[in-house]
Amino acid sequence: MKILQFGKTGQVATAVQAAAREGVEVIALSRADCDLENPEGIRAAILAADCDLVLNTAAFTHVDPAEARPDEAFAVNATAPGAMAKACAERGLPFVHLSTDAVFDGLTDHAYVETDEAKPINVYGRSKRAGEQAVLAHPKAVVLRISWVFSRYGRSYVSFMLKLAREREVLKVVADQFGTPTDGEALADFLVSTAPRWAAASADDPVFGLFHFANAGETSRFAFAKAAIDRDPQTKARLEPTTQAAFAEPAPRPPRTPLDTSKLQAVFGFTPEPWRVAVERTADRLV
Ligand SMILES: NC(=O)c1ccc[n+]([C@@H]2O[C@H](COP(=O)([O-])OP(=O)(O)OC[C@H]3O[C@@H](n4cnc5c(N)ncnc54)[C@H](OP(=O)(O)O)[C@@H]3O)[C@@H](O)[C@H]2O)c1
Fold first, then answer.
1. Domain coordinates in residue numbering, the chain
2. Has 124 been annotated as catalytic?
3. 131 C-alpha vs ligand 1 centroid, how far in Å?
4. Which of 275, 74, 82, 87 is nearest to 186 (CA)?
5. Could you tell me the pTM of the whole model?
């Protein structure tokens, strides 16, 4: 089983390479191997690859800079995955792509299901939504929406908060933004272990389509950070709740984007772990 993966150095890209096991090889392409701003290069890479499935973990993930660089965000987050899906369709290969809770406006009274209307409120969210639409034109495409990803790899919210809490006396953390954290290592395991099933499935199989993937339970940014920081004996910061508005960032953030994972559970028999258990384990491995 060979997976051609776009993205080599990112958080999820690294977790997938670490999760690769006997019988599953991950061929990871870095920006130097294939720049996602070049759709022709993407097509050539897929047509030439010896692989059974293509996975895209690369993206323009800088939410605030995206406001000033929409062309770049759309090239990487929409045009590039569209080109990947098209080349995969040409070869009959399954294509797995990652998206985000940022496709929603955050004005909800329930955890979002896949059929809820996507109404992104910033450039990053709009570019990711355009990517989903382009990818889902391929019948053997999978789009997994994930949110608030953390792991031992790369720079995640958890590793960043642990670092700040060692450096500062007072750490102000947003308390009015709510969502469902996603264990990047559980995601990577799921991707690697499900790859053979996607590779063997026909286009009408329910394993293809749009899914939400996250840990169980909703939380605030504040409680998310606190769960990690409380595990670190060397932390010195006192946590203080603040508001999203106090940060005055260029990109507006959706206030509440919990993801309902019932469809994922029904189709794949996957049971997400409670977010706190996964965050505490990750923090313990990081400190
Ligand atoms: N992290 C989260 O909290 C979160 C939440 C929801 C959804 N997601 C989605 O999950 C996926 C993985 O995110 P992540 O956290 O692993 O992201 P990340 O750590 O920021 O990594 C992004 C990767 O994309 C690569 N990349 C960016 N522009 C590129 C280009 N023009 N050509 C080639 N490669 C390029 C980067 O390469 P360089 O290292 O060379 O820059 C990097 O390896 C993305 O689709 C993201 O939208 C993430």
1. 2-155+181-217+258-272
2. yes
3. 14
4. 275
5. 0.98
Average pLDDT over residues 6-22: 97
The string of pLDDT tens digits covering residues 46-72 is 999 999 999 999 999 999 999 999 999
Both structure tokens of 245: 């508005």
83 Cβ below 6 A of ligand 1: no
pLDDT value of position 34: 98
Measure the CA–CA gap between 279 and 272, rounded to whole angstroms. Answer: 13
SS3 state at 203: coil
148 in ligand 1 pocket by Cβ < 6 Å? Answer: yes
Nearest-CA neighbor of 158 among 257, 275, 57? 275
Per-residue model confidence as pLDDT tens digits over 100-113 = 999 999 999 999 99
Which residue intervals of 136-209 are DSSP H helices? 157-167, 184-200
Write phi, then psi, for 211 (nearest 5 degrees). Answer: -135, 150
Atom nearest to 7 CA in ligand 1: 43
Please state the length of the chain. Answer: 287
pLDDT value, residue 255 = 98
**Which residue, judged by its Cα, is nearest atom 7 of ligand 1?**
100
* Domain 2-155+181-217+258-272 grouped into CATH 3.30.1450.10: no
C-beta of 73 in contact with ligand 1 (< 6 A)? no
Distance of alpha carbon 186 from alpha carbon 178, whole angstroms: 21
Q: For the packed helices 123-135 and 80-91, what is the interaxial angle rounded to 10 degrees?
A: 10
Tokens of 68: 């000033």
At residue 249, the pLDDT reads: 94
